[in-house]
């Protein structure tokens, strides 16, 4: 039996929040993580550009021998999942469906607040996926959160103030029964997001798209991976820009040091 090789793709190191969840979940698997750091952020780019970048990355992972792909980036999942699926032969899992499925659980007919990048919100991918499950999504673009998290300001008064402003604006339009973290970076500020919601009297649970996606992939792959051997999962990382920065920032997202990163040139 061959070891399942799972490609995990993101615009940068944020998708390491998905790999972090996957590593203990799917024993015996090998992961190849690709962060397109040279072309980040995706969250402010057009559909055509995000699709072109994401397809190139997905093809690279397939050429490296990946037997399935996880698109950890919410923006790439929202804007380019169909193009990615059409461009490769292997199964592809995005983050939107697993997250919405988790949000849906026991909440039919209710309102879900989705926090995401500008591009994800403009695509309305979450709105449509929620509508298919009889959930009403209120989408709120939070463009300042990605740079704040990358700056390491996860427990910082400025981040709290920015959260207050975004959440106050969003709550003008809804009273959510769940709040969906629709961006790779938001799990790192889950605690201040939950506290800010409580300040506004909202006790709704947070749905983490990274966690939901890892659970879904885990369900699909655990039998296959287990049969290949119950050794701990292994991983290797590629980045399209500074290897040093990827190791430094990425370790916060992965929750462990990243011993080695290979530099990759995808062009453009
Ligand atoms: N990975 C992106 C997402 O989950 C956030 C960072 C970016 O804009 O590239 O939407």
Kindly estimate the percentage of residues that lie in beta strands according to DSSP. Answer: 15-25%
Rough shape?
globular
Enumerate the strands of the largest sheet in spatial order, edge to edge or round the barrel.
4-3-1-2-9-10
| Share of helical residues | 40-55%
Count of beta strands: 10
pLDDT < 50 stretches: none
Average pLDDT number:
94
Question: Helix/strand-derived class?
Answer: alpha/beta
Describe what you observe in this structure.
This protein is an alpha/beta fold and 268 residues long. It has helices at residues 16-22, 47-63, 74-87, 96-104, 118-123, 125-131, 145-150, 157-171, 190-199, 209-227, 243-254; strands at 5-10, 30-35, 68-71, 92-93, 111-116, 136-141, 178-182, 206-208, 234-239, 261-263. The chain is globular, with a radius of gyration of 18 Å. The mean pLDDT is 94. D-glutamic acid binds next to helix 3.
In short:
The protein is an alpha/beta fold. It has helices spanning 16-22, 47-63, 74-87, 96-104, 118-123, 125-131, 145-150, 157-171, 190-199, 209-227, 243-254; strands spanning 5-10, 30-35, 68-71, 92-93, 111-116, 136-141, 178-182, 206-208, 234-239, 261-263.
Q: Could you give the topology of this structure?
A:
Blueprint: E1 5-10, H1 16-22, E2 30-35, H2 47-63, E3 68-71, H3 74-87, E4 92-93, H4 96-104, E5 111-116, H5 118-123, H6 125-131, E6 136-141, H7 145-150, H8 157-171, E7 178-182, H9 190-199, E8 206-208, H10 209-227, E9 234-239, H11 243-254, E10 261-263
Parallel strand pairs: 1-2, 1-3, 2-9, 3-4, 5-6, 5-7, 7-8, 9-10
The structure holds D-glutamic acid (DGL).
D-glutamic acid is lined by residues 10-12, 14, 40-43, 73-75, 117, 120, 146, 183-185.
């Amino acid at each position: 039996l061959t070891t399942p090789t799972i490609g995990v793709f993101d615009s940068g190191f944020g998708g390491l929040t998905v790999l972090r969840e996957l590593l203990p979940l799917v024993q015996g698997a090998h992961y190849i993580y690709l962060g397109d750091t040279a072309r980040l952020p995706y969250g402010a780019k057009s559909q055509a550009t995000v699709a072109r970048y994401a397809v190139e990355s997905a093809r690279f992972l397939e050429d490296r021998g990946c037997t399935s792909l996880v698109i950890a980036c919410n923006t790439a999942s929202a804007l380019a999942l169909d193009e990615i699926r059409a461009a490769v032969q292997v199964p592809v899992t995005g983050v939107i469906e697993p997250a919405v499925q988790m949000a849906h659980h026991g909440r039919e007919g209710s309102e879900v607040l989705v926090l995401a990048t500008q591009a994800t919100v403009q695509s309305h991918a979450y709105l449509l996926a929620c509508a298919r499950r009889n959930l009403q999504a209120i989408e709120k673009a939070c463009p300042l959160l990605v740079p704040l998290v990358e700056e390491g300001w996860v427990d910082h008064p400025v981040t709290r103030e920015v959260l207050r402003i975004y959440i106050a604006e969003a709550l003008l339009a809804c009273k959510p029964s769940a709040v969906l973290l629709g961006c790779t970076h938001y799990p790192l500020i889950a605690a201040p997001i939950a506290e800010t919601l409580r300040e506004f009297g909202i006790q709704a649970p947070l749905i983490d798209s990274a966690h939901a996606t890892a659970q879904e992939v885990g369900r699909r792959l655990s039998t296959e991976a287990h049969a290949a051997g119950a050794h701990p999962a292994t991983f290797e990382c590629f980045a399209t820009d500074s290897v040093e920065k990827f190791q430094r920032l990425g370790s916060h997202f992965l929750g462990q040091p990243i011993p080695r990163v290979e530099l990759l040139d995808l062009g453009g």
